[in-house]
């Protein structure tokens, strides 16, 4: 693992445990207030996203759950921040140009290297405020109720998520739950709401994810 990634992960996880508040290194977590750790999230501006192809709807209430996805992209061994940005572009292009959606369907994406990118425009600002959220396009019947978080990679055929991705997913989910008052048990997979294999092995790991998110919030 690249030294920057290793340092970022150590500081992020220390912040999640309430042991450190790091601000100088990209990708690290920092304490926002008691009980909440704010992970470093690259905004749509940071990764130079395309403009939305229409208006982004902002819902004037808080989401009640999180839905986890995977993007069925290549299981790359490139764990760099640049790859996370390239992946964010790939997802946005797919959703705009093939699906004809207004913007990226997911609110946030977690790369295989553990970098977090904002998906749909406005998601990060809304999350920081903790009072409203943008309407997504990630799960039929849940887009006006749930935050959609997508993990880079394909996990259908026994592939295991990298530690960096898993650990940062836990921190992100814990932060989303804190900001929006979502119970740690309210974490689901895409296949809970439709006929799909998404999010692959991540669905089997949901009980562990709920437990680790609860532990991160209690630390």
Automatic annotation (TrEMBL):
Q: Could you tell me which Pfam families the record lists for this protein?
A: Amidase_2
Q: Where is the Peptidoglycan recognition protein family domain?
A: 39-194
List the SUPFAM superfamilies.
N-acetylmuramoyl-L-alanine amidase-like
Q: Which residues form the signal peptide?
A: 1-31
Q: What PROSITE patterns is this protein classified in?
A: TAT
Query: What CDD domains does this protein map onto?
Result: PGRP
Asked whether the keyword Signal is assigned, the reply is yes
Asked whether the keyword Signal is assigned, the reply is yes
Where would I find the N-acetylmuramoyl-L-alanine amidase domain in this sequence?
51-200
The record's keywords, sorted A to Z, are: Signal
Q: Which residues form a coiled coil?
A: none
**InterPro entries of this UniProt entry?**
Amidase/PGRP_sf, Amidase_domain, PGRP, PGRP_domain_met/bac, TAT_signal
Q: Which family does it belong to?
A: Belongs to the N-acetylmuramoyl-L-alanine amidase 2 family.
Mind telling me what this protein is named?
Peptidoglycan recognition family protein
Q: Which organism is it from?
A: Streptomyces atrovirens
